């Protein structure tokens, strides 16, 4: 887990295909989220935010989630079909 803030000016690069998530802890937070390709619903995947097998210590136990994020499966039930295609 990394804390990103206006004060520490950190950024985080998440490689293509890696699961990732974020939680804002300050009101009126703006998140800039850059990606390397147009959105593809066909390739969209997710994992339950609170999967105990992953064990992320989120700073809240009652987050505000989108309906899409609420419906993600546990990691053991997730569709695993990602193939890493490294840059040549």
Describe this structure in words.
- The protein has 88 residues and is low in regular secondary structure.
- It has one domain (1-88).
- Helix content is 5%, strand content 0%.
- The chain is globular and about 40 Å long.
- The N and C termini lie far apart (29 Å).
How are helices and strands ordered from N to C?
H
Whole-number mean pLDDT: 87
Largest sheet: none
- Could you name the ranges where pLDDT drops below 50 across 5 or more consecutive residues? none
* Derived structural class: little secondary structure
Helix content: under 10%
The shape, in one word, is globular
Distance between the termini: 29 Å
- The multimeric state of the shown protein is single chain
Secondary-structure blueprint of this entry?
Elements: H1 67-70
Summarize the structure.
By secondary structure, the chain is largely without helices or strands. It has one helix at 67-70.
Features:
88 residues, little secondary structure, 1 helix
